[in-house]
Amino acid sequence: MKKIILYFFCLCCYTITAQELLTLEQAVTIALENNYAIKIAKNEAKVGEINNAIGNAGMLPNVSATFTKNNSILNTTQTQSGGTERTLDGAKNMNMTYGVGLDWTLFDGMRMFARKERFENLEKQGEANLKRIIFTKISTIYQLYYDLVQQQNQLKAVDTAIVISKERVTLLKNKFSIGKVSKLEVLNSEVDLQADESLKIQLQNNYQATKIKLNELLARDLKLDFYVANEFTYDKSWNYEELQAQAEKQNPELQAQIIAKKLADINLKEIKGTRYPTIRVTSGYNFTRSEASLGFVTQSTGNGFVYGINASLPLFNGNNQNRNEKTAKLIIENAQFALEQLKQTIKMQLTIAFENYQAQLKLVNLEEKNVTLAKQNLDITLAKYKIGTLTPIELRTAQQNYVDVLVRFSNAQYLTKIAEINLKELAGIINWQ
């Protein structure tokens, strides 16, 4: 076993120098900067932020500059009040108006305030959606990262088996050379060694595929090689009631549904606002100029301030107002139902995840003890095998048991971490800032 430990120490030193270490914090940082889904969600959130403006809600006036010029060339005949006729072919006429005008809605049944409230909630909805996508992506990164940790541990376990199998082959070949064992035992040991190396190739293939998936999620070179920190840590101080309270406040999916309910309420406000009158004021400063080849006035100009007020009140629109309000109320009711259903679903998921996490923690403790026992058993078996008091089958059984326990222990650690990540995602407490 001392030779095995020395072998693994050298192997780990070589691996570290040949590859870069990717920490979990680095992976999250890279994803926040590079991941395309997160970039898209960030831009969508910015759209909501930009649209949340009082001008977009219709609270500010519209000011515009206008210019109009009309020209005509006419064959004109005019009959004056004294009966005299005046005729001019190709008479030129020109009318030109330009200036600055203002159009401002002063009252529209409070709909402009409802629109502003809607834009505020749409901005919050964009932020909640961004948070949801970030949580989802970071959760996936966590899972892939700890899957790599698990696979690294499994590869180390198989390397342990390979070292023992090689030592067994060497020992049997030496014994065969002096006639103490048969050729069959040597061949069996070589078959076991090939089986271990074959398993290692399969695990290495899965390991490389997982690294490619993580690189893709980080939006970087797919062939970039790295290794991950080989450790599992858990938070064992969680309380179910605290997690449930955090989920009600921070779960991004739940927050998005709460905003959807608010938007349904605001929609009813906007519809009700159409029952009230709309009052607008208009004003401006215009310049006018006209020219005519025929007539009493051949040229005129003018400039000055113009203003006015406009009011309208809907009286009847085919009962569409009542229908729209009834529909909006049903949409509100459905949004409330969806919110209550989602709360119940999240509570159910959180309960199952918490129970699963507690069970996985117990399993990790159990498998950790099994690793200690299996290692002791392997040490004793290997020592007895070297002095010839145990058969190759008994050594192979102890060897496989040790590898199986290591794999089970690594798998239990991984599943516990996945359960923890699931809990954090449901409670909305994944650390990403």
From TrEMBL:
It comes from the Bacteria. Residues 1-18 form the signal peptide. Keywords: Cell outer membrane, Membrane, Signal, Transmembrane, Transmembrane beta strand, Transport. PANTHER family: OUTER MEMBRANE PROTEIN TOLC. InterPro entries: OMP_efflux, TolC-like. It comes from Flavobacterium nakdongensis. This is TolC family protein. The keyword NAD does not apply. It is found in: Cell outer membrane. Belongs to the outer membrane factor (OMF) (TC 1.B.17) family. Pfam families: OEP (PF02321).
